[in-house]
Specification:
Elements lengths: L3 E4 L6 H7 L3 H7 L9 H13 L4 E7 L4 E11 L4 E8 L9 H16 L4 E7 L3 H9 L3 E12 L2 E11 L2
Parallel strand pairs: 4-5
Antiparallel strand pairs: 1-2, 2-3, 3-4, 5-7, 6-7
Length: 168
């Protein structure tokens, strides 16, 4: 049985999100854009935009006790093609490296393939994020491409890998 579930983000979750999205270390692997700490207003707008757009969905990742430990969802959902881009981040450092990310990923894949009826789920990952790459490959994602030296972090260039998983 999974130790996590996907849930709606509520007002009580926002302090955790504010903390994570102002943490450069979290941001440096969460996305390929420059990891600049976000203000509370920007985090509020980001969550609001996810909830209002027709081509995205965002979830809190919660433990079975109800504690928020991360954020996940889909954006760039193209219903006609049955494809979407997955995003996931475990923000609570106490839950890193303990299998919670894998369990959240499995819940997210189940939701994508069975509730959204997606055929293809894709994601991007920075080449130095070895734990994430290992997880993605473990749950069946296949590397489809490399965007050479796409990401700039601390004065160094890194590749951005494109991964996808098909419903089979």
């Amino acid at each position: 049985m999974s130790r996590v579930f996907l849930d709606t983000i509520n007002k009580e979750d926002m302090p955790s999100l504010y903390k994570w999205f102002s943490n450069v270390e979290f941001l440096s692997t969460y996305d390929y854009i420059l990891p600049i700490p976000m203000s509370k207003e920007k985090v509020d707008k980001m969550i609001s935009d996810y909830n209002e757009e027709n081509n995205s969905i965002v979830f809190a990742i919660r433990t079975t006790e109800g504690n928020i430990i991360g954020i996940a969802g889909y954006d760039d959902i193209i219903k006609d093609n049955m494809v979407a881009t997955l995003f996931i981040g475990i923000g609570d450092e106490n839950y890193l490296g303990k299998g919670f990310g894998k369990e959240a990923m499995l819940e997210l894949l189940n939701y994508g393939f069975n509730t959204l009826n997606l055929y293809r789920i894709q994601l991007n990952v920075i080449s130095f994020n070895s734990p994430a790459i290992k997880l993605y490959e473990k749950v069946g994602f296949q590397k489809e491409g490399t965007m050479k030296e796409f990401v700039l972090r601390n004065g160094q260039r890194h590749d951005l890998y494109m991964y996808a998983k098909l419903k089979k």
